[in-house]
Prior knowledge:
TIM Barrel, globular, alpha/beta, 8-stranded parallel beta barrel, 14 helices, 2 domains, 319 residues
Amino acid sequence: MSRILLAPMEGLADPLMRGVLTGLGGYDWGICEFVRVTASVLPNRTFLRTCPELNNGSRTASGTPMRVQLLGSDPYFIAANARRLLRHRPAGIDLNFGCPAPTVFRHRGGSALLGEPQLLHDIVSAVRAVVPVDVPFTAKMRLGIDDTCLAVDCAQAIAAGGADELIVHGRTKADGYRPPARWRHIARVREAVDIPVIANGEVWTVDDHRRCIEESGCLDVMIGRGALADPLLARRLRGGCAGGWDDLLPALETYWCGVRERVLPVHAGGRLKQWLMLLRRHYAPAETLYQRLRPVKGAEEIDRLLIEAGVIRRLPLAA
């Protein structure tokens, strides 16, 4: 059976959203947002803030294992932080070689390293030296920076460094998130390494998932924004009766109440609207709700409108 994994999504899949998505079921494991490593060993609170699931056996409330992702370019300090992280017994450790964000790229992180296969090898090797064999150790990369000419070299460097598995997002840094994802290029990478490769990128539907597996040759698939656009997608991929909009309402209520408890009212509405913008890709009621909420700034007014729409049943606690 193909594994279905939840991708790390900076600014989208925070701990609250991860809990909501995995609570709907279907995911084998996921990766949290990245922990930025520079020239220091981070305090324990940094790992716990980014991945509070560490306080719950490295699992979301529904029991889905959540691995911790490290991002940086210094082999020594990434390894030192991996050693510190191991104190919290993470479900796994992942290395970020794919983030395309301009700020990360300028500071030589994420996809910026895809022009330096030797450095990728050095980082992976340094982390492998401190991570026990019983702790899953993965890396996530894109196909390159501006082109795919070093994709195989990068993948082979990561595999030779000792990663257990490799996740490949089928785009370059320059591609950003523009479709299509190059699943056939992932197949080239998979054929060139002797560790399992997991395909990632542009999986929004059951049909996308099928074509991704066919074109990449990968058995396992990691889902990113498609998980937010259709939170029931993982269940659909399992072949069960996934449901529709009404089945999402409890998750929407959980999310909004969680946002209201954690986020200042001035920012709360933006978080919900961001999700609705993705949900409307698959759910007509999400488009209606988004258009109704779009001009509204006050969280209290959004509370009222959500109650009227039947999305929430009670006024949430405010931050």
